[in-house]
Amino acid sequence: MKRGVKPSKQPSGSIRIISGRWRGSKLPVANVQGLRPTTDRNKETLFNWLMPYVQNARCLDVFAGSGGLGFEALSRYAKHVDFIELDKAAVTNIQQNLVKLKVENELAKVITGNALQVLPGLKQQFDIIFLDPPFYQNLLPETLRLIHEHQVLAPSGIIYIECEQQAADYVVPVHWLLLKERQGGQLCARLYQN
To answer: Which of 3, 59, 60, 150 has an alpha carbon 20 to 30 Å from 95's alpha carbon atom?
Structure first.
């Protein structure tokens, strides 16, 4: 973890941690085009779904953006979170927020890069994967293929997929079990188990 990271673009807002050790903490969000942090309402629904799975889980936040889902998992005592993010300002913002929360180095790792290039090189499996790619870029099909092909999701692991309604016809491996689903407005959110 880099200490004393230089400030990036001016924050455009904040995310709030809903529950756990950092409950109520507000973290600044970098002003990055296309960044849309998961709303508190959606995050609360998701983490209600994940309640039996989060504690001591190894988590992967694939298109991390603000890092909101990974930070919420850490706050709820996930064992470790890897954040993958391409945008350097967003990466710096995640690193600054890890410092702000005094997150120990062994609890989190920030990987700067294109998720489609990073996923095949990951050396471990994850208990929970957060998959919330930028809208209208058709990233889900290839990302899901790589996660399955490279066995990134652990046996019995959980994957959360959030996408725009127009992209909700993606295909998952036949053995993934749909546990939860929520659709509304322009969003589709689903939780699967490997």
So the answer is: 150
Q: Is residue 75 part of a domain?
A: yes
Q: Is residue 92 part of a domain?
A: yes
Q: Does this model's pTM top 0.70?
A: yes
| CA–CA separation, 114 and 86 (whole Å) | 5
**For residue 58, what is the domain's CATH number?**
3.40.50.150
Q: Which domain holds residue 95?
A: 11-193
Give the C-alpha separation, 107 to 183, whole Å: 32
Which ranges of 1-87 would DSSP assign to H, the alpha helix? 40-49, 68-75
Digits of tens for pLDDT over the chain (194 positions)? 333 444 444 446 888 999 999 999 898 887 777 677 777 788 888 999 999 999 999 999 999 999 999 999 999 999 999 999 999 999 999 999 999 999 998 999 999 999 999 999 998 999 999 999 998 899 999 999 999 999 999 999 999 999 998 888 999 999 999 999 998 878 899 999 99
Q: Containing H/E element for 98?
A: helix 88-100
CA distance 115 to 98: 20
Nearby residues of 129 by Cβ (< 8 Å), 6 or more positions away: 59, 60, 62, 147, 152, 153, 157, 158, 159, 160
Residue with tokens 């005592």: 77
Tokens of 44: 């609360």
Structure token pair of residue 176: 């993934």
